[in-house]
Structures are given as structure tokens and as C-alpha cells.
Amino acid sequence: MEFCNKNMAIADYITKSKSKEWQPLIEKGLRYEGVFVKSLRFDEPTNRSKTILLKFEAGASYPYHNHPAGEEIFVLKGSCEIEGEQLEQGDYLCTPPTGKHGVKSLTGCTLFLMIPEEVEIIKT
Question: Which of 7, 15, 77, 79 gives 20 to 30 Å between its CA and that of 91?
């Protein structure tokens, strides 16, 4: 689907997330235990999802990484910790371009993310 094609009906832009199944988060062959994803907007030219839902089970984490073009996160449910800061339901984080952090959730959470460019995992 082409993004913002003026000839398409609004219904063509709606993603019914409840009808999508949670998928294990697997990137470059590596599965992140306890982290699941639903794609809301897949970008065909870059072959990746730029808008997603992420679900963390209690105790799950995502490693330290760089956001070349930034990122936006909105906490829909639960809580997570990013760079020592606790984000609760309703909190919003705008990570600037080249911003770096890891994510962990002790209790579990569901996040809405907009990620314009693929993240880069940083080995520590």
C-alpha cells in the first residue's frame, strides 16, 4: 500500500489492531524474549514497519540502541524504564535523532511507537 495515495479511501488507511496477532519480535534473526510486536504501518519502499505496537512481558527488555532519525513512544498500558526514567500509562517520550537508550519493563507494558528509521543495536 502506498502511503498517502490521494486516490485511496480512508478505510484503506485503517489498521484494525485487534484483528492482528502479536508476533515475537525478531530482528536480524535475533528473537527478543518476552517482547511482541504488531505492525500498524508497513512501509514497502524501506521494507519495514515504521509504526508499531510493542508488548513487553514482565521482566522483558530491549537492548541499548541508537535511533538515527529519532522515535516517539506512548505508553498505552503498564510501565517501562528508559534511561533510568519510569514511564507510566499515558506518558509520552520523543527521542531526538541519534538518541540512545535501552528499554525494560519489570511489570509488563504495551507501547505505541513511531520509528522513522531502523534502530542500531549498540553492543556494550
Answer: 15
The pLDDT tens digits of the residues spanning 45-56 come to: 989 999 999 999
Q: Give the SS3 label for residue 17.
A: helix
Domain 39-121 fold: Jelly Rolls (2.60.120)
By C-alpha distance, which of 108, 95, 116, 113 is closest to 48? 116
Query: What is the reported pLDDT for 31?
Result: 96
81-121 confidence digits (pLDDT tens): 999 999 999 999 999 999 999 999 999 999 999 999 999 99
Q: C-alpha dihedral over 33, 36, 113, 99, to 10 degrees?
A: 10
Domain locations along the chain: 39-121
Count CA within 13 A, CB hemisphere, residue 24: 9
Specify the residue for cell string 524501506: 46
Q: Is residue 2 scored above 80 in pLDDT? A: no
Q: How many CB atoms lie within 10 A of CB 101?
A: 20
